[in-house]
Known about the structure:
Blueprint: E1 3-9, H1 12-31, E2 37-41, H2 45-56, E3 68-72, E4 74-76, H3 86-100, H4 125-138, E5 148-154, E6 177-180, E7 190-193, H5 195-198, E8 203-208, H6 214-221, E9 239-245
Parallel strand pairs: 1-9, 2-3, 2-5, 5-8, 8-9
Antiparallel strand pairs: 4-7, 6-7
This protein binds 6-phosphogluconic acid.
Amino acid sequence: xxxxxxxxxxxxxxxxxxxxxxxxxxxxxxxxxxxxxxxxxxxxxxxxxxxxxxxxxxxxxxxxxxxxxxxxxxxxxxxxxxxxxxxxxxxxxxxxxxxxxxxxxxxxxxxxxxxxxxxxxxxxxxxxxxxxxxxxxxxxxxxxxxxxxxxxxxxxxxxxxxxxxxxxxxxxxxxxxxxxxxxxxxxxxxxxxxxxxxxxxxxxxxxxxxxxxxxxxxxxxxxxxxxxxxxxxxxxxxxxxxxxxxxxxxxxx
Length: 253
Ligand SMILES: O=C(O)[C@H](O)[C@@H](O)[C@H](O)[C@H](O)COP(=O)(O)O
């Protein structure tokens, strides 16, 4: 049975700080009982602000990053180093500092392949998705995905999470990863975890800020149809947190 908690924060800045503090203390809790911990990162402004807040937090140094593996819920299918890649923005916000400090091993960062010809890259979103599915399985105990302790998701104004958009065939994709074309949010080509992968996580945290998210946040929390509001299926095995600001919570009854 998964529990759900909605926490409303005064504004987006406080939301990012609170989400960062939660993430760091969650990692401390997990590391007190097991290692490694696996965290799935998200793109988007709130997701990246959360990483930047973690980078600035004194709690950051309390985490044993050598025992933390970082994954992505989705990625924009662009060349390596492109400033619009979620990986690029996460590295700039937090990861590069941790690696440079010798705290986080580079091999603990599990990027989704970029568009390119190199062996570590991919020619199509489908090829990238297949390679990522293999990497997830390699770090799993049962050939599926690692034991995700926390899976972060931003939510778009249309209710999408990761790169799973309303009325899109990727919503029902089999397996744990999917190549996405025709994304209504640029860029059009992406790679995403599927809901099967998202549902593997002990805890799923949806982070959303801004009045433009209010209608779909309310629809998701009212258990609307997944084809119209994909965020409704952002559910963790043990707990689902909705971490929102007052503007994103403004349409709730
Ligand atoms: O690649 C992406 O764009 C993200 O993964 C996407 O799912 C994002 O999290 C939402 O669109 C929310 O983005 P904002 O927080 O910027 O509104």
